[in-house]
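ok so for the tutorial part 2 we go from a plain amino acid sequence to predicted structure tokens. step 1 is just haveing the sequence, like this:
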Amino acid sequence: MKSLKFLFMFLFVFATSAAYCEMLTLNEYLDMVIKNNSELRSVQLNIDALNCKLAEVEKIYSCSLSAGVDYLDDKSARPYNPSVRIDDMSKLSYDAGISKQFATGTQVSLGLNGSLGQYKYAPSPAAKDYNLSDVAPFVKLQQSLWKDINGGSTKAGIAKAKASAKSALYLLEYKKQNILLNVKLAYWNLSYAKTVIDFRKMSLTRTEKISDWTTRRYNMDLAEKSDLLQSQAAVKLGELNLKLAYEDENKANRVFNQYLNIKDDKIKYDLENFKDKGNNFKGDKMLSKKGIRADVLSTLEDAQSSLHDQIAHDKSSGADLVLSGQFALNGVEQALSEAVRHITNGDKPSYLVGLKYTLPLDFKLRKTVSQGYEAAKNSAQKSAEYAAIQENNDWFQLVDNWNNAKLRLDLVIEIEKAQQQRQEEDKNLLRKGRTTTNLVLQSEQALDDATLNVLKSILELIQIYEKAGTFYGCQL
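step 2 — the prediction. this is what the tokens look like for a chain of 476 residues:
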């Protein structure tokens, strides 16, 4: 019975500890942040919104439906010719049409005009009361021959709007990338902090063994009191370093939980060992640039936006010549002509062609404004050029940092191996009484420094790699 109780308690403790020590990989952590982090969700929603709104710039090419209705009740007698005079007229007029602008700049409307009404004529042998029911389909066309020939002005305006929207999208993407980079670094910084704690514990254990050994020797009058004090001070220093390591872990815990919107400094997950990540960086692996940083792409789009803005202004601010035309089956003018057409039998197709020229007279003002658009375009282009140069330098610096960090890692690993051998040798000499406690503690401290340098070098390589992968799409 007792054995069953013990087994049950063991399984309960094991299950509980497993529940609170679940392994959380970096990708799993990223997925949790993407789902839960308010700032990241806000940025992503803005990106989604801009992607949806981007289609709005093409709205000018969409079809539009228009419809209207008018009712007229007119009892004022008016002659249309010497023999015809209307005493009373009531009429319901309606129209409906579909309009569309094409990429060529041509505006086309298809529709119809219709009327329902009654005309009462003054007594006359030439006319009788007339009930009207009329429908007149029509086609209208308008084309700018200068400003918007082949859709130049419209296309420039659309291109400007698209470039501005893409610039905003790239900036949002850059902001998102920065957040995700900080998330990755928070994960690895916490993994580093936990590793340092484990290392400090082992270091303290070694120092305590040396202190115990020195205490026994001192009690046997085989060691000086200075050796005893030195070993005790080394233990206290080890305890201090461990305490500082726990403080750093608590800070890393808060940052880690912050991205999950958790207000706590406790972590219930085990993380990937960042030391294992160092194995991925061995050999002649090089960083390879796969793309342009998003903030630079934003400046390039700003330059395009300014260019198209200037083109749109130049086309829209000058003179224009507009050609228009209309074809109607039952006549172009309908307002009060139904009775006349009825009397004269005038239901025949009609055509209308027009040409209109406009020229703004503010020549000096237009020149000044055009210079402003030119300056804005040049400014945006220079800014894009500088951003591209700066990004190129940043990339080469990142590659240099990567190569230098790899060399440093190889060196500190060799130093650590040498210090481990020295530490083992000094411990053996201490057991044989052929060295002092002070020298052994010095070798312990040297080993600690070498091991920390290895950990810091691995962390530096991880930081460089994550930055290159986030901003430039690098993969090893």
